[in-house]
Amino acid sequence: xxxxxxxxxxxxxxxxxxxxxxxxxxxxxxxxxxITNLLQHMYNLTDTYWLGKIGTQQQAxxxxxxxxxxxxxxxxQGITMAGSILMSQYIGANNIKKASHMxxxxxxxxxxFSLVCTTGLLLFTPLITAWIGASGEIFDLGNIYLxxxxxxxxxxxxxNIFSAVNQSQGNTVFPMLLNLLGILINMVLDPLFLxxxxxxxxxxxxxxxxxxxxxxxxxxxYLLNRRNEIHLKRRLLKPRxxxxxxxxxxxxxxxxxxxxxxxxxxxxxxxxxxFGSSAMAAYGVGNRINGIITLPxxxxxxxxxxxxxxxxxxxxxxxxxxxxxxxxxxxxxxxFLLGRILSYRPVxxxxxxxxxxxxxxxxxxxxxxxxxAFWCFTNNVYNCTMGLLNASGKTKITMLVEAARLxxxxxxxxxFCQQILHMGVESIWYSVVVSNGxxxxxxFVLYLSRIWERDTLxxxxxxxxx
Length: 466
Fold this sequence. Notes:
Blueprint: H1 2-8, H2 14-19, H3 22-51, H4 56-92, H5 96-132, H6 136-149, H7 153-168, H8 173-196, H9 200-224, H10 241-273, H11 277-293, H12 295-313, H13 317-342, H14 345-355, H15 359-374, H16 378-391, H17 395-420, H18 426-448, H19 461-465
Helix pairs in contact: 3-8, 3-9, 3-11, 3-12, 4-5, 4-6, 4-7, 4-10, 4-11, 4-12, 5-6, 5-7, 5-10, 6-9, 7-9, 8-9, 10-17, 11-15, 12-13, 12-16, 13-15, 13-16, 14-15, 15-18, 16-18, 17-18
């Protein structure tokens, strides 16, 4: 036990973020996040792999109902992300007491929200699945999967709060190790429940749920540990109006933007399902692989938020911008290279072939993957600039851009390609890259406008007063 504690008690990187080499800080923060996000994607990839062994209908069912759960999770993550931003600025301003108070209020808000949403989804699962457009076997399978997997929402929120507390301090290693524990458990339980006990899609959902139980337990124990600078205290879990208002002023726009985007994915599923279950399965496979391709940009964007947040809290505006520039350029170069490799069709076919043996699904998924991979470098511009604007408190702006990415640009592209160009299922594939590219361009123009450096949260004033 003592040896494990030594491994887990990783020193935070605040000093490096504020005064050291920015590229080194970026790497030390982003690298564990990349691994963490990869492990989280492995949950879904493991499910997809084993379900691919028993049929396309199961794959299609998960692809249809997953955006429903993701909508709830995205809203909650907007709140926890606000906590990470605010804690980062308090830490940069050398106000650990306020950072600890903020962590407690985030925990309180997230737990209440997760319990309410879990109860609501359990009650209305059949209505939601029917509204999406599922029918027959896919309707039944979707209900089974969603009703079980939605139970992990409170557990996932505990893990996310734990990650936010650590990331705000520049420590992303412990969250990575915690996610490694979860994926190892999931990789054992998936084949056990699916192939040995023959529990079908319900077994896959149960494996995902049970794998999060020990992770949430470890995360909660860490958050309750009084030896940590930022930890949970019973007396601090009472609602504080001033902090809750601050959390929602920063987090609510992000939560609305993220959940609106995820809800848009529900409607995307309806658009894809028009082309049949094979198209639905291909869409799910392609999205999961694309999620792995863009892991670096997601991680670099998160690291950008931490670096910018702490430096803005410390009143170091130029260093905050320098961190954004380094993150954007390095991420674009990396994704440009990875995208060129994976857009090569023989490579894409080899990767898709791991997740499905259905020839129709494979053909469509390879088309989808080759198009997305070629343009994936725009995701890094998008994620890094989102990190910059969120860290400076411009979450209302990012909410509008994030919502427009799906609700305006993506659906408009689908309409144009289907109704004007008569492109069929390929209209779905191209809508993804067009909407991502347009949104990235808009965000970069906002960076150039310098709007991010005006009217920041003002937390940095605390450092000057100390």
